[in-house]
Every structure is written in structure tokens, then in C-alpha cells.
Amino acid sequence: MEGYGWEEYDIRTGGRQVIYDKGNQIDITTEFVKMPGGEHGGSWAARISGTPREDASPTIKTTMIFYAAMSGMSAASPEDAGLRIENEQDPLGYEGDLNIGGYTKDLGAFRLQLTPGPTTNTYPEVEHPHSEGKPLDRTIAQSGTIPEEHVWQAKAIVFQTIQQAVKGLVDQYGETDMPAPCLAMTIPNGNIGQGNFHLTQKVFEGAFEFDIIFSSASGGKQYTSAEVTERLSEVSESFKDKYAKVFAAQAPFNGKKYDQFSKTMFSNLLGGIGYFHGDSVVDRSYAEEYDEDNEGFWEDAAEARGRNHQAKEGPSELFSAVPSRPFFPRGFLWDEGFHLLPIADWDADVT
Amino acid sequence: MFQPLNFQWQLPHVHVSRHVFLAALFPQAAMRSLYAAVLTLLSALVDCENTTLRDDTLLWGPYRPNLYFGVRPRLPKSLSTGLMWTRVDDYNDIQTSMFGVLILIGSLSTGALTD
């Protein structure tokens, strides 16, 4: 990973993040925009695109996995929340849009639409008996229900699902006659329908692009990719205009390189804002070792911690910028005052 | 410290004036961090009627900064989305790319496939 971050971002409207993924030899761009309207906080869309890096083969194969999970769903009170893939079950996968419909009390009804993307997308063609049952120009999908406490552990679930799929193929074909990895390392086209966890997977060859469009039913509009394109350029323009007004650069720091640098710094600060919810682990023993005024205080403090007076408290919620997305993606009060200095200049109500 | 707070209560519901006023009070750079902290407190204390409407534009966002890209609303129990990817030209890709840490969970039994 060479670096990643939001290069333009306004928390009210959206922006663009670029991920320079050296290891995978592909740069991933995630653009995000909000479309206001309706009674439930509006709609939004994400455009995901991949551009092979200079050192990559033009036929580089990349797989993209998108998941949607719903917390607070229960069979006992189905009126509270629901989430389901609306397409008709197809063992070969899904051509065209994949639609995930859902509702909660706060969000009302909504639809998440995963588009196939432009016709310029290309897909690997694998010569292997297994490819007949799994054409890679389709979206692969699977719905499931997992324990509420595991909903956030999507990565582990995806990894295990793919691992099992590969194992199954090894059993079926043997290690010497395996299908190409781009086909083998895919989730099964399993059951789709109601569930609190939905996995979707796409496999591309070379550059690609697709959209994830969330349309809120009370907004009264199902957005299209063409509208997303329009909205993206609108949002990018308004970001640049606002930036020039709010953070007008002074000589000698008004060159282009400074402009880009400061936009990226600021956008990533704003784009790093997170919403966190859950229990905290708190030690309220007020052990005197925690005063840390003896020599070797770290040993005493460690011993005090070893007495296990920690207990869960909460839940509570936090809306905060973070000191560093890769190394410290959590709230940190000490830093937050400094984070809020430029944010207050940009949009005082966010602070 | 108490003066600006008291004054703040009498300000009309215009956010910009609150902002400019406090900035003028704390001109030095070092004091501006304090100002930002005070501003945070004030935002929690004053005029909710106006912000509720505007907060609608803050409901959704890539509010999972620990992920490369994950959109969720500012709601405790709700929809949560995420994106992952890996190159799939080689059976080892999945282990060395962003799934790296997950090697701990269990290694793909495909070691013999790559060479």
C-alpha cells in the first residue's frame, strides 16, 4: 500500500478517495456523494473504479467484494428492520443490477443497487469445467444470517467463505487441476433472500468501474448511474469553490502543489470522521498504582491491571475525527481540539 | 471563560456569529485549540432546533475510518456496508493483500499450488 486518503471531501456532500494499492498493482478510487431528499436523511451513491498501476499486466484480475449488514434485525420483531436481496435466485449469478432492499424505523424503506457498470468492463474467461456453472461476467451473491455480535467481523466471514470454496474445489478437482484463482477464489452463488448479512462479489480483468446506489424510498426517486455522474461533478466543483473561499492560500504557499497537498490533508481529516457505537471497557478501581509516581511505575500499573477490575460500560456513541486512519482509527480527545480548528472554519456545525 | 459562555446564550441562532465571536476572543494559535473545545461544548448546549434539520445531511457517510471504504449512518443499530478487494492472479494474492492479517485465522491449504 503506497498510500490512501480522500483527495476531495465535504462531509455534507461527498468527495473522492484514491487508494494506491501497490501490492495488488491497482489503484482503487472510491467516490461518494449524497443526494438529499425525503424524510430519512436522503440517498447516496458510491462509484468504485480500478485502474491497473504502471507495473501491472493489462489483464490483471481483481475481485471486488461488497457487503451489506444490518444490526438490530430479529425474527421476533420483523417490523423493526429487514434486509434482503430482491433478485430472483439464479444459480449462475446475476446479470444487470443486484438489488438489496431493506427498511428500519429510522431509515424507512430503501434500496441498495449494485450496478454492473459501463460496458467497457471486461471479465476473465476461464477455461475449466467449473466456469460453466460460474460465469464471471455476472455478480455473485449470497445472503445469510449471522449472530448479531459478529456482524462487524465481515472480513473474517469473507475470508472463511472463500477459503471453504477453495477447499471444496481442491477436493473436487485435486490440486493439479484447479481452476484459475480468479474463478476459484469466489464465494458460492448461494441462497439469496432475507438475512442480516449479504455478500456480493465481482471479478474484473483490467480497469473497471461500478456503482453502489442507495435510494431512500421517501426521497421518491431511484437514482441512476448517469445522475450519479452528474452529482459527482457538481459536488467536486462545489468543493473546489468552497475550498478556495474558506482556505484562500497566501503567498508563497499558493502554488499548485500546495493547493493539492492542503486539499488532501483537509479532506482526509474530514473524510476520516467516524461514527462509533458500542460498550467501553473501564477500570474504576482508582488503584493508586495508576498515579504512576513510583520508579518502575509501568510494572506496578501492569500488576494493578492484572487484578482485572475492568468492566464493560455503555453502550455509548461517538462521532469524531481520528488521528490516523491506518494507525489510530479511533477518537482521541487530546487531538480532537486540533482537528476541529480547520473543521470549524469549514463547517462550524459539524464540530 | 464565563463571559463568552454567558454572552453565547444571548446570541441569536446564527452559527457564523458564534464562530467569529469566539475566534476573536481567542486570537492566539495556542488558544484556538481551547476555542475549538469550547465550540464543541457549545454545539452540544445551544440551539438544537436549527441543527436537527441540517444534521440530515450528516446522516450518511464513510463513517468507518478503520476500513478503506465503509458507509454507514450515524445510528447505533442500522445498515453497515463495506468494500474489500484483492488481486486474483495467484493463489497467494488473497493472503498477501488486504486480507493479510487474516492469515492468522487459518491459512489456505493451497501452498502446493503456487511456485
Tally the helices of chain B: what do you get?
5
Overall shape of chain B: it is elongated
Q: Give the CA-CA distance, first to last residue of chain B.
A: 68 Å
Helix fraction of chain A by DSSP (H/I, runs of at least 4): 10-25%
Number of domains of chain B: 2
- Classified in CATH, the superfamily of the largest domain in chain A is Glycosyl hydrolase family 63, N-terminal domain
Order of helices and strands of chain A: EEEEEEEEEHHEEHHEHEH
Relevant terms:
heterodimer; A: 351 residues; alpha+beta; Beta-galactosidase, Chain A, domain 5; 2 domains; 8-stranded antiparallel β-sheet; 3-stranded antiparallel β-sheet; 25% helix; 31% strand; globular; B: 115 residues; two-stranded antiparallel ribbon; 5 helices; 3 strands; elongated; disordered N terminus; disordered C terminus
Word description of this protein:
The complex is a heterodimer of chains A (351) and B (115). Chain A is an alpha+beta fold. Chain A folds into two domains: 3-237, Beta-galactosidase, Chain A, domain 5, CATH 2.70.98.110; 271-350, no CATH class. Chain A contains six helices and 13 strands. In chain A, strands 1-2-3-4-11-8-7-6 form an eight-stranded antiparallel sheet. Chain A has a three-stranded antiparallel sheet with strand order 5-10-9, with no helix packed on it. Chain A has a two-stranded antiparallel ribbon with strand order 12-13. In chain A, β3 and β4 (43-52) form a beta hairpin. Chain A is globular, with a radius of gyration of 24 Å. By secondary structure, chain B is α+β, with helices and mostly antiparallel strands. Chain B folds into two domains: 2-58, no CATH class; 59-104, no CATH class. Chain B is built from five helices and three strands. Chain B has helices at 2-10, 15-25, 29-45, 48-55, 93-96; strands at residues 60-61, 72-73, 79-87. Chain B has a two-stranded antiparallel ribbon with strand order 1-2. The relative contact order of chain B is 0.08. Residues 1-23, 45-53 and 98-115 of chain B have low confidence and may be disordered. Chains A and B meet through β2, β3, β4, β5 and α1 of A and α2, α3, β1, β2 and β3 of B.
